[in-house]
Specification:
Blueprint lengths: L1 H28 L16 H8 L1 H33 L4 H16 L2 H15 L5 H26 L2 H9 L4 H12 L1 H17 L2 H6 L7 H9 L5 H28 L10
Helix pairs in contact: 1-12, 2-12, 3-6, 3-9, 4-6, 6-9, 7-8, 9-12
């Protein structure tokens, strides 16, 4: 038993080392005054200053944040509505069909989804740019939100809704005072997952971006193709730190939501 535990620990250490060592290597050389990733000559913040002084890059960062926040908010609203609709379906076969269609979108290769959106926007006459990227991010984020919200809906006892109706609550009151408060952890989880996917997405965005509009993932890829650039290291370090902050924030938010709450009667 002890050997098993030691083996599991070593395996986890190895996995995390493989995942995080390249990131820490990148972060380490973002402070290198030498200008390359071969010899560390001295500590400097020059590359971080260069990132903040690059006006075009700052606009791209702003574009990325706007797309991520806006698409995540829209996808969360639509995803919650979709999850409630699927959960309320009476026929098991119909429910399973919609769940399968939802899951197919999650497991489908990003290249296929990106190419499909490109064809769709071309046929529909939608210009590639902010709108095309926003619609694409909303579309691939909705299934993620549905997948995060559905388990919370399935955990909810039908007697809660029946009790609220017996107390004279309308459909809107049942939704706003019973259903939504109960599935709030799932809603937050869906929002943050959609936000992460949107910030991280490259393949789909690469297909649907245009007209001078770009996001961080596409910009970093374009610059990396030109060779080693330590401002990219600095930018990637900043993105990684922001991601860590979001993850830690979500963890504490989730822990707070898990605390037992007193049952409030619907008035």
């Amino acid at each position: 038993m002890k050997k098993k535990k030691v083996g599991s620990t070593l395996y986890l250490v190895l996995v995390f080392a493989i995942l995080y060592l390249p990131i820490f290597y990148l972060m380490y050389y973002s402070f290198n005054s030498g200008g390359d990733m071969h010899d560390f000559e001295g500590f400097t913040l020059e590359w971080y200053k260069e990132v903040f002084q690059d006006t075009r890059l700052m606009i791209i960062v702003l574009n990325t944040l706007v797309i991520a926040l806006l698409s995540s908010a829209i996808a969360t609203i639509l995803g919650v509505m979709g999850a409630i609709a699927i959960n309320n379906m009476k026929k098991r076969q119909t429910k399973n069909t919609f769940l399968s269609l939802n899951n197919v979108l999650i497991v489908s290769p990003d290249v296929i989804i990106g190419a499909s959106f490109l064809i769709l926007f071309t046929i529909a006459g939608v210009k590639l740019g902010f709108i095309s990227v926003l619609l694409s991010h909303v579309a691939f984020s909705i299934p993620i939100v549905v997948l995060m919200v559905l388990p919370k809906l399935q955990e909810m006892s039908p007697t809660l809704i029946d009790a609220a109706r017996d107390l004279g609550a309308s459909r809107f009151e049942v939704l706003s005072k019973v259903v939504l408060p109960f599935i709030t952890p799932g809603i937050f989880a869906g929002f943050f997952m959609a936000l992460t996917y949107s910030l991280d997405d490259f393949a789909v965005t690469f297909f649907v971006t245009g007209n001078g509009f770009s996001t961080l993932s596409v910009e970093i890829y374009s610059r990396a193709r030109q060779g080693i650039s330590l401002p990219i290291n600095a930018l990637s370090t900043l993105i990684f730190l922001v991601t860590i902050i979001l993850v830690v924030g979500y963890y504490f938010l989730n822990q707070r939501n898990k605390r037992p709450k007193s049952v409030v009667a619907v008035k």
